[in-house]
Structure formats: structure tokens, C-alpha cells
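hey can u check if this looks right to u? its 360 residues, i copy pasted from the old doc so theres a chance i mangled smth
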Amino acid sequence: MKVNLSYMKNKEVLIFFPYLHAFGGIEELFCILSASIKVKVVCFEDKLGLAKYSKNIEVIDLKPRSYFEKIFLVKKFFSNSENLTTPIMWGYKSAFFAYLACIKKYNVHLDDPPSLILGFFKKKSFFVSLRHAIAEIINKKALQKANVRMTQCKKNATELNKHYGCNFKYCHPGIINKGHILKKSNKKIFILSISRLQHNKNLDWIINAISLLKVINLKLFKKIEVNIIGKGEEKTFLENLVFEKKVHEAIKFRGFVSNKAKDKFLKKSHIFVIPAVQGYGIPALEALSYKNKLVMNKETRISEIFKNNSVISISQNNFKSFNKNFLKTLDETSNNKKANFNLILPDHKKWSKFIYTNSI
């Protein structure tokens, strides 16, 4: 269905997202949104320089000097009657500050399900967990006070509704598909991962899968190259694991790369792997648009829009299942088994319209 965006011309959305420190999934969503409408992002700190990624993004850095000044500046900015749209508090921290600042009217967009957040804090110290428990009380009040609550998929909406006792609307974000016509190498098989290097991404599954491949099929192992794009706190752990498993000749860590470089990796790759537990998974759509076969964990929640087929393989949330699907996809790719990439993917224009109509 064609989405008419003409009425959104010269319109804008106002988003509060406190910390722009690294380019990840949320920042990618802001850029996708900016393809259809002007995006104003209010923050406390912009180390990233987000505006350089899109001419249609304006960043307003409040630059607070203390915790209490954060609350004061949020109240001052969002109480301004000149704001033409209802601000969207993007993420838990944004909703938290909106409630403390007593903002009268705001909407909320959450990317991550509470189970992912709670799982992270279970591994922390008692005092960190206690601080989170107090923040959760405020979060619940903040979300219940919000005018409209949004998320990215049905599974998130169901979990958020159950956890916080309030309804969430959802719409699947899409990407701008340029209709790539690609010819891949038939001499080497390129495998790609794009994500932050953190615990919930399960990137050790990729390393362990390659390690097992070396044992069971050395000939195929010598034919592959694995590129892992991204930065994060697990970088040292993952690099050490690669050397421990003796697969460093096959696995390369590329760090953070430019969009141009990322496109080059996507163009040449045959298989894209997502072992992560996460709230959505935009890179899955980018990979499919570049004719990559996809091996993904069902707990990457974009999986709810897919079915297993010649291109997409969805595993259970464990290494055994993921490895089985990965080896099957690798074998099919090695044997040039035909894959049908004629897939219907989410429309970025429909998602942009959803965001805009829920901010006026």
C-alpha cells in the first residue's frame, strides 16, 4: 500500500533522547525518520554529532552541568508553548526525566522490552539494582502519565502492557530500500554481523560456531571470512575468545565504520548473523536489502514479521539451535542453493507516518 506523506511536508517531530554517544539502532531510526520529516532531537550530550548523518536532523544540546540542572532544563524547554508538536520521550531515561520535570503532556517511544533491561540489572551490584528498582517505580508512573505510548513490534507491546499496566501502540520500522542489484563472490563466503559489542548480542555464539566449523569442515572453514562491525564493552572478551578458539584468521573485528564502508560490507556479504536478544533489529532489513541470507535468534524481535524460508532462518534462543541453522545456511550457500529474495519488508514511510501522527 502506497503511503501519502504530502501532508507531512514542512512538518517536524520533537524528540528527547538524553545521550547521543554512539551510532546504534536508535540513531539509525532517527535518520530513517528524517527521510520523511524534519527531526529535532533534544539531548543532554551529543558526542556523536548526529546532525552530520542527515540534513533533516537538528540537535539541541541542553548541556546541563548537574543532575538537578538536567531536570530544570527539561522542564524549561518542554514547557515552551512555541513547540508545535507533543514531544516524544524516546526511551526509559527520557520518560524518567519528563516525569521528574513535571512535563504536562508528552508521548513515549520505547525500543527495548523490560525483560531485557531487568536481565541486565540482575547481574549488577545490590546498590545498582536498588537504584534501578527505584527508577522502575518512577518509570511506571511516567509511562502511565504519557499521552501516547509507542513501540516497534507486537511482542514488545504485549510485554510492556503486562509489565507497566498501560497500552502501547506499535508499528514495524522499515528502511529505505534502494533496490540493489548485486553479484556476490563464488570463491569466498563472507559472513557479517553489525551490532554493539555487548552481552545481550550473543556474539560469542558466532565465534563458537566458527570454531566448531573448523573442526568438522576445515575445507569450508578456509573458504569463509567473518566481519564483525561495531564497538562495545565486550570487545576485549570477544577478541580474546577468537584467539583462544584459534579462529583469528577467519574472524575480523572492524570497529565502527562509516555508512559508505558498511554498505560495502553488506554488498559483498552472503550471510548476515544476528544471535542477539533485542527489541527489534533494523540491520536485518539492511542485510536483506543487500541480498544477504539471514540467520537470527527469535528473540531479535523483528523476527515476528518473518517466517523460515530459503533466505531466513530463525533459531531458538540458544547456541545449539543457532549453530544448527547457521551451519545449514552456510552449507546451502556453499552449494549455491537457490534463494528467493522477493520479500515484502516493512515500509519506512508507513512507520514515519505512525510516528508523526502520534506526535500531534
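The CA atoms of residues 204 and 238 lie 7 Å apart.
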